[in-house]
């Protein structure tokens, strides 16, 4: 059934057999139907993942599929991180694979970690009629952005193809396809079609990038490609699906929905070497729509899979908490969302009215808990220590920290997760309070710039006949309301300008002079960069949040807390 095209035989892959292209007529059939199992496989839940594979394989077989494909490392889940270092991993994986051995009459291509005396590999197993017919080890190990596969995996060195019902199929895993070499070598070795297993995380417009890459690879090699991607949230990552069957000319024959579990079937005509074409392609998503769906899925899976019964959000009457509340309701349902308004003497009547209006429109539990006594109590306690020092941001931060105490106390008492409402712009420049508005377990907007918050709020309102976010929440100047008549722009540049500098510095990794050359004021650029660098210690203590950008804070952007790097060189 399968073959290893390397000149040196892989002695640990004894079931691979030589392909015979000249004998295809004897085993030919009209078509081969591939089932793309775009599904969420939970990290660490090996037994349940294997059972899900069984269910999907039987379902696919019932629907006429010849081959079912599962995502990269699906048996263990992706990314498994240091679970790959657990000494019991190999035994658990072998046991799980053995449970799939009684599934007949369908080929299963399973992503899994392969452990043997040669090392640990990111692999794909070929299972058929009770036997493992072969396996493939990923060759190109990404070590950038959110990926650190060289920490865990050894590099595969052999091309693997297998013959099945008239076609020779080549296997690749994720990053293998982004470079020219692996697919070109498979073509050289006689591949008729490529199957690629992936766990490709979401970022803005990533699906367009994938389509461009797939079209290029298929046309370069005149090869059709089956591209399967994972789906669902895992910690700060969201996998957005969008699996595809690509014709040899680069056109999309089948495309799965984004952000949803789906068993997608694509039939390949052996004689014409073409896929059939799906009757109706999924709706294309706008930039705002895919961002919003990613945020919903990220929060939904983090909360539900972590076992929390609900979430608590501090509702201020401002746009950040308003958008966060919408995402929370869409992710979990109104019955699992608890909103708390915590006014102080600087809280405006407008904020009180807008917070209540939004809570009512979304039908969430809503409580008003004033913090006046808590703030005054802390101030009274500190008064002898402050020795009549003039008021400054210290007193403002006491308000934020009092709110943090209230939310965390409610979390402790009722077991709900506190979600924070800070956005990427604020987090970047330190416009946030440690142990105050940063207190919580998940930051929904952590990777969303303030200018994007406004766009997402307007997008969410367009989905309803009656906007769920009051219009003046979107139109009035943003304020933390920690002092009389406070506005964000008292301390920060206009958000459109600020975000332009931040995107250049953070997402595009541009330096001081290059940012100035884009037309930004030199003094302002220096000020903003300094604010970003000085706030690294805050971000290191911030909760995780869903990645949607090209470069999110957290595992993707890591700087020393103490350093003497000069922004001007």
Quickly list its features.
21 strands; single chain; alpha/beta; Rossmann fold; 569 residues; Nitrilase/N-carbamoyl-D-aminoacid amidohydrolase; 7-stranded mixed beta sheet
**Fraction of residues in β-strands:** 15-25%
> Mean pLDDT, as a whole number?
91
Strand arrangement, major sheet: 1-7-8-9-10-13-14
Structural class: alpha/beta
Kindly state the percentage of residues in helix. 25-40%
Shape: elongated
Q: What is the alpha-carbon Rg in Å? A: 27 Å
Task: Walk me through what this model shows.
The protein is an alpha/beta fold. It folds into 2 domains: 32-275, 4-Layer Sandwich (Nitrilase/N-carbamoyl-D-aminoacid amidohydrolase), CATH 3.60.110.10; 289-539, Rossmann fold, CATH 3.40.50. The chain is 35% helix and 19% strand. It is built from 17 helices and 21 strands. It has helices at 24-27, 46-62, 89-98, 180-188, 206-221, 287-306, 319-332, 349-362, 372-386, 393-414, 424-429, 450-462, 471-475, 495-507, 512-517, 522-534, 536-539, and strands at residues 2-4, 31-38, 67-69, 107-116, 119-128, 131-137, 160-164, 167-173, 193-198, 225-229, 231-234, 237-240, 244-246, 252-255, 262-269, 274-275, 311-314, 337-341, 365-368, 417-420, 442-443. The strands form 4 sheets. Strands 1-7-8-9-10-13-14 form a 7-stranded mixed β-sheet, covered by helices on one side. A 7-stranded mixed β-sheet has the order 6-5-4-3-2-15-16, with helices on one face. Strands 19-18-17-20-21 form a 5-stranded parallel β-sheet, with helices on both faces. α11 links the parallel β20 and β21. α6 crosses α7, α7 runs parallel beside α8 (349-362) and α14 (495-507) packs across α16. It is elongated.
